Amino acid sequence: MDNVFDLLGGALVVVVIPLALFLAVVIPVWALIDLLRRDDDPTTRVLWGLLIVFCLGGVGSILYALVGSRSSALRRAAVIGLVGVPVLFITAALSLQTAEQMREPAAGGGDPTVDVTAMPELPTIDPSGVGTFVAARPAEGARAYQVGVFDLRGPDESTLRPVDTACDWVALDTRRQQHYCASWRGVTVVDLERELTTRLPDDDDNFAHLAGIVYDEPRDRVLVTANTGAGGFVFAYSPSEGRWRELFELNTHARALAASAEADELYVIPKDASFSRLSSVHRYNLEGASLGEILLDPPLPLGERGPGSGDGEIQLVWSGDWLVVVLTEKPERGQSILPVEMFAIEQASGKVYALANEGLR
Predict the structure, then answer these.
(1) Nearest 5°: CA angle at 121, between 115 and 123?
(2) 13: number of Cβ within 10 Å
(3) What is the pLDDT of residues 217-228, one digit of tens each?
């Protein structure tokens, strides 16, 4: 029997302990590097950071018990702990990720019998009938984006400028000729000419999980939608006053925002429970009163895009009498910039037309 225990002990020393030590150190270090590249909200970053520190601290304590302790019982407990640390980390990380996904608000409902992934047959439209607009697309890198002028065929490559900040949604301040880049965490002012970026303050409790941004030129203000567990909100930022204020609460959570200066209306893509299909666009006046919905004919499959999803974002742009849905996808490391998909929605009827599905021009 002693020989059996000796063999098991030798196996622990030769195989299990080095493997457990490798996992217990490499996994938290990898998670720390990934954390520095993430664009999560501050609470999530703090929780991930505490989890990493806890695991690394546990590894240090276990190694001290293995090397410095003369107690065989303590050393055996340290071996068990060393094996358990990576298991604990993986379990806690999965639980944290699941909690973050569950914390994301949802509104409405989805029909599980509907195939929301199949792209329907769509009529096409002449791009000259819609005009141009400013949009953003992700480039290679954690926070690499490009901002420029688009039309329904895709971006005008000659106008694209790199932006070294998260820019899932963008609005052009036509008075100051500067851009406002928004991610689900906050808003940054971007001066492309001087290559300067300035993060705007966001001290309101409801100012979180942003999803869309527009510049209201007649009133010289920036409008954003924000999502909390309580619902969706619209905030306004005054560049002249340098502060935000809450305008009104929406009757839905938002995934994207557009505005019509001519009609003084806001258009919001709602976030439904299926999180994969766009079937309507909600309309509001600038006082927050609901003006009904634009029912899309046919609904559009969007995939797992949305605020903080990491799989691409949805931009909604007003151009002429049309709403343009711009779908982008973040390229993987080493992957070239991915094509931009766009669709036009006729505001009066909700009819959906295919646009630049062939990719970059």
Answers:
(1) 145
(2) 11
(3) 999 999 999 888
